[in-house]
Design a protein that fits this description.
The structure holds 2 protein chains of 2 kinds.
Chain A (H helix, E strand, L loop, with lengths): L1 H25 L12 H10 L6 H6 L2 E5 L3 H6 L6 E2 L8 H12 L3 E5 L3 H13 L5 E3 L2 E6 L2 E6 L9 H12 L31
Parallel strand pairs in A: 1-2, 1-3, 3-4
Antiparallel strand pairs in A: 5-6
Chain B lengths: L1 H10 L1 H18 L11 H9 L4 E2 L1 H9 L5 E5 L3 H6 L6 E2 L11 H4 L5 E5 L4 H12 L5 E4 L2 H10 L10 H16 L6 H9 L24
Parallel strand pairs in B: 1-5, 2-3, 2-4, 4-5
Chain lengths: 204, 220
C-alpha cells in the first residue's frame, strides 16, 4: 500500500513537470528591439566608418530622408521628401517595420535634426539595433520668415584655440606680476579595484 | 480481461513518461537561440537618452572647479593631441576610440564620482555617454556645448550691452572672475588694483583723559 502511494506521487510530479515545460514553451515571447551590435563593436564601427553624408550627396542619389524632430517642427517646415519620425518614436513597431523595409530594399536612411547633436541619439540607437544603412546629415536648421534654411555644419569642430587665446590675453594685458595660471594638477587617481574577470561558469 | 489490459499499460507508464521527458528535453535544442543582450534594454536607453537630464552647464562646471569640488572626474574624449594642447583643469584623457580599454574602465565604471564627458561639441561626448549608459555605468554626465561653449561663456564671456537686465551684468562679472581664475588676463585688471590702493587715512588722535588714581581710602 505504501509503495502505491509513492508511485502515485511520482506520476503527479512528473505530469506537473511536463505541464510546466509546455506552458513555458507556449508563452515564450521573443524580445523586441534587440541590439544587433554590442557596445565594443559599435564603438569600433563608429570610429572607423564614415557615417556622415553631405547635402550634395542626397540630391544626387536615392535616399530616404528622416526628420527626427517633433511633429510640430516637422509641420512648420522640413526638407523636401523627408518623412517624420520623432526621436521618441523610433522604436515603435510601425517605424521599425518601415526602417527594415528600407534596409531590405538597400536604401539609405538619412537622419537629420535641428542640430547634428540632436540627430546623434536616434542615429546611434538605431545603429546599435543593427540598421547599418543609416547615415547622419550634418546640418543646422533655421527659420527665416517662416522659411526653412538648411546650412551644412562641421561636427566637433574646435571653433577657437583656447590656449592661444589665454596666452594672447596675458600678453595684451602686460601684466607685470606673473598671472597665476591654473595648471592641471596631477591626474586624479581613482582607487577602484579592478573587477576580476570571473571564469566563465558552466551553463547548462 | 479489461483489468488485465489496463494493468499491462500501467506497467509501462514510467517508461512512457520517461520517453515524453526525453523528447521534451530534445525539443529544447530546437528552441531559437536566445540572444544575450548586453546592457540595458533599447527602450530604456532611448528614453533616458532623449531626456536632457544628463547635461551639465559650463557655469556649473566652472563653479565646481573653482570650489575644488572633489566629487567628479572630467573625461576628455577628444584625441590626445588636442588634449595636450588645451583641456579643462584636472581632466583625464580617454579618446573615444579607447573608451572600452582596460585602463579606462576603473575611471568610468565606479559609483564614487560623477563622470563628466566633454569634447569640442557635445557630439562625441554624447556618443560616449550612450555607450557607457547602455552598459549600466552610473553617474554619467555630459558637458553641454563642450569646449566651444566653455570658451564662449567662461573663457571669453560676452560683455552685455547697456540695455540688458542686471542679471546679465552679474552673470558677466561672475564669468569674468571665473575666466581670470582659469588664466585669462584683462587689461583693466591692474588698473582696478591701482585704484583700490588709496592712501592710508591719517590716524585720528582721540584724547582720552586718564582717570586719576584716587588716594587709597582707609577701610573700616
Amino acid at each position: 500500500m505504501k509503495e502505491l502511494e509513492k508511485t502515485k506521487r511520482i506520476s503527479i510530479a512528473s505530469t506537473l513537470f511536463i505541464l510546466a515545460i509546455l506552458i513555458g514553451v507556449l508563452t515564450f515571447e521573443r524580445p523586441k528591439n534587440t541590439y544587433a551590435l554590442n557596445t565594443k563593436s559599435t564603438l569600433e564601427k563608429l570610429t572607423t566608418n564614415d557615417y556622415f553624408i553631405s547635402v550634395n550627396e542626397i540630391k544626387r542619389e536615392n535616399f530616404k530622408l528622416i526628420d527626427i524632430r517633433s511633429q510640430y517642427d516637422y509641420d512648420k517646415g522640413h526638407i523636401e521628401n523627408a518623412i517624420n519620425m520623432a526621436s521618441s518614436d523610433i522604436i515603435t513597431e510601425e517605424n521599425q517595420a518601415l526602417l527594415t523595409e528600407l534596409k531590405n530594399s538597400n536604401k539609405t536612411a538619412v537622419i537629420y535634426g535641428n542640430k547634428p547633436a540632436q540627430a546623434n541619439i536616434p542615429f546611434l540607437i538605431l545603429y546599435q539595433l543593427g540598421f547599418d544603412n543609416i547615415k547622419l546629415l550634418p546640418v543646422e536648421l533655421d527659420y527665416y520668415q517662416n522659411k526653412l534654411i538648411v546650412s551644412p555644419t562641421e561636427v566637433e569642430k574646435s571653433k577657437q584655440d583656447i590656449k592661444s587665446f589665454i596666452e594672447e590675453s596675458v600678453k595684451n594685458a602686460k601684466v607685470e606680476t606673473p598671472v597665476n595660471v591654473v595648471k592641471p594638477i596631477k591626474k586624479k587617481v581613482v582607487v577602484v579595484q579592478k573587477k576580476k574577470k570571473k571564469a566563465p561558469e558552466g551553463g547548462c | 480481461m479489461d483489468k488485465k489490459k489496463i494493468a499491462k499499460v500501467l506497467s509501462f507508464r514510467y517508461k512512457i513518461m520517461a520517453a515524453i521527458l526525453v523528447v521534451l528535453a530534445g525539443g529544447l535544442v530546437l528552441l531559437p537561440k536566445y540572444q544575450k543582450q548586453e546592457g540595458i534594454k533599447s527602450e530604456a536607453l532611448l528614453n533616458h537618452a532623449i531626456s536632457p537630464e544628463r547635461y551639465i552647464s559650463t557655469d556649473q562646471i566652472s563653479d565646481k572647479l573653482i570650489s575644488r569640488d572633489p566629487s567628479f572626474i572630467l573625461v576628455d574624449v577628444r584625441d590626445e593631441a588636442s588634449y595636450n594642447d588645451y583641456t579643462l583643469p584636472n581632466a583625464i584623457n580617454i579618446p573615444l576610440a579607447k573608451l572600452f580599454d582596460d585602463n579606462s574602465a576603473p575611471y568610468l565604471n565606479q559609483d564614487q564620482f560623477d563622470v563628466v564627458f566633454f569634447s569640442n561639441d557635445n557630439f562625441h561626448a554624447d556618443q560616449a555617454w550612450i555607450l557607457c549608459y547602455r552598459l549600466g555605468y552610473k553617474n554619467l554626465r555630459v558637458l553641454k556645448g563642450g569646449l566651444n561653449q566653455w570658451f564662449n561663456t567662461i573663457i571669453n564671456p560676452k560683455i552685455p550691452s547697456e540695455d540688458m537686465p542686471a542679471e546679465d551684468f552679474e552673470l558677466y562679472s561672475t564669468r569674468k572672475a571665473a575666466s581670470m581664475f582659469f588664466g585669462v588676463a584683462y587689461q583693466d585688471q591692474n588698473v582696478e588694483k591701482d585704484m583700490a590702493i588709496s592712501k592710508p587715512a591719517p590716524k585720528k588722535i582721540i584724547t582720552v583723559a586718564k582717570k586719576k588714581k584716587r588716594p587709597v581710602e582707609g577701610g573700616c
